[in-house]
What does this fold into?
Amino acid sequence: MIIRNLADVRASDRNIKGNGWESARLLLQDDGMGFSFHLTTLYAGEEIKMHYKNHLESVFILKGEGTIEDLGTGLTHELRPGILYVLNEHDRHVVRPKTNILTACVFNPPVTGKEVHDESGSYPAEMDVPPPIPLAH
Amino acid sequence: MIIRNLADVRASDRNIKGNGWESARLLLQDDGMGFSFHLTTLYAGEEIKMHYKNHLESVFILKGEGTIEDLGTGLTHELRPGILYVLNEHDRHVVRPKTNILTACVFNPPVTGKEVHDESGSYPAEMDVPPPIPLAH
It folds into this structure.
């Protein structure tokens, strides 16, 4: 059993800041769970364009409001607490937070954590993470 | 892209009640994400003994307080908002909520949803879910 505290993760190198967002990565690939689990804040007023080519992701809104635009369909959906958006088709999307938005995110396969350090703190408008090493289980 | 609302899930057959807990299953195996994602409430005053023999699970505390006892080590840990507990070794454990505890849970492999209906609403003290059908991806 692993017990982890968000405050400790926020104070560690598992807390990553990008353009318009900040993410506390409570579980990464090396935890061996087969998924990663992040508490991610998307900052008010930002326009965050994303495309995870190699990952599936679900994002549950805990606090805050904004919109997500599905660039495949052109549809825009409201984001507020209790909404889950699911990138089950590697969907290209843009999130536009009206307020700071706090989310609980799950990635499959898990994020390794190394993507970020390889980028030296800078992120492309369309960010992606490379394929991770397969897990034993 | 899937957009889902917790309120809708709570009002559907994806909202399951057990002995001492209630779970809104926002993502199940048939969503094809390779994990399931649940918002689960553990009720104050209950003593919930669990052992997931075939699944890994992470549980993030959103609201409420209590304890978790690791029956393998005998250690008891405090649960409060911001704590993640991770059953990475199919750990036998007991959760004792002091207040209602709201959690965000991830299961790998994903829960199918069929486990519950097979049990006809009753749950053994040590509950488990059967191995799911492997996903294509």
Observations:
- Chain A has one domain: 6-108.
- The first strand of chain A starts at residue 2 and ends at 5.
